[in-house]
Amino acid sequence: MHPIPTLQVEGLSVHFDAPAGPLPAVREVSMSVAAAECVAVVGESGSGKTQLCLAVMGLLGRGAVVDGSVKFQGQELRGAPLKVLNQFRGATLSMVFQDPLSSLTPHLRIGAQLTEVLRHHRGAGSRQAWTLAARMLERVRLPDVQRRMRQYPHELSGGMRQRVMIAMSLLCGPALMIADEPTTALDVTVQAQILELLRDLRAELGMALILISHDLGVVGGIADRILVMYAGRIVEAAPVADLWRAPRHPYTAALLACVPALSGPLSSRLATLPGQAPQPAEVGPGCAFAPRCLRSEDRCRRERPTLSGSGAHQAACHFPLSA
Amino acid sequence: MRGLRRNRVALAALAIMIVVALFSGVGPWLNPNAADTLDWAHVAASPGFEHAHWWGTDRLGRDLFVRTLEGTRVSLAIGLLATLISVGVGISYGAIAGYVGGRTDHVMMRVIEILSGLPLIFFVIFLTVIFGRGPALLFLTIGAVGWLSMARIVRGQALSIRQREYIEAAIALGAGSGRIIVKHVVPNLIGPVIVYATLTVPQIILFESFLSFLGLGIQEPRVSLGTLIAAGAGEMEAAPWILLIPGGMLALLLLCLNIFGDGLRDALDVKER
Question: Is A55 among the domain residues?
Answer without folding.
Answer: yes
